[in-house]
Amino acid sequence: MIEMSEVYKTYPNGVLAINGIDIVIHPGEFVYVVGPSGAGKSTFIKMMYREEKPSSGKIVINGIDLSTLKESKVPMLRRSIGVVFQDFKLLPKLTVFENVAFALEVIGESPRNIRKRVLDVLDLVQLKHKARFFPDELSGGEQQRVSIARSIVNNPAVMIADEPTGNLDPDTSWEIMHLFEEINNRGTTVVMATHNKEIVNTLKKRVIAVEDGKIVRDEARGEYGLYD
């Protein structure tokens, strides 16, 4: 479960990015976060995996209070949260297999368990046959699927995606979205910031709309709305 209570975020330059957010996201939900550019969506998303800290208020994910979490404990938190970015963030000198395995190596998994788990998730994202390829040998859609495989290899309870289809063509975007749906159907909570109106309006999920740092709309099967 993700809970935010009276959360505010003001940056050092004085910009108020988050202005009193209260929200509960239940286990297994699929949530879109939408809104115009500069609305506070990215800050909202980044606070969930402690890339940003709130100026005040409380954020609790799966019983962990992020507001008071020590910096030394942040890596442990992120092992239970999968994060997918618009620009993939793959390590260019590692193969597909190695990029995904890295997430397990840092927590000391055995080579045997790493091999099995990595091959399982590469099979899920339909890239098992490209395990020995390097990122620059893949298409953008394939690189995003590797990023997704890396984010779920630890069996996270929560997956957070920040504009995961932003750099992809429409057909590839749909492939990625169907993969997110499959992951959600397996029980993972998915929270996704997106500007993709067509996807939001077609694959109807819960929609949280953010404007000027506030939640202005929260609908169970919502639509994108009138944003650029």
Automatic annotation (TrEMBL):
CDD domains reported in the protein's UniProt record: ABC_FtsE
Gene Ontology terms: biological process: cell division
Gene3D superfamilies the record matches: P-loop containing nucleotide triphosphate hydrolases (3.40.50.300)
Bilayer topology: Peripheral membrane protein
Assembly and oligomerization: Homodimer. Forms a membrane-associated complex with FtsX.
Function noted in UniProt: Part of the ABC transporter FtsEX involved in cellular division.
Protein name: Cell division ATP-binding protein FtsE
Phylogenetic lineage: Bacteria, Bacillati, Bacillota, Bacilli, Bacillales
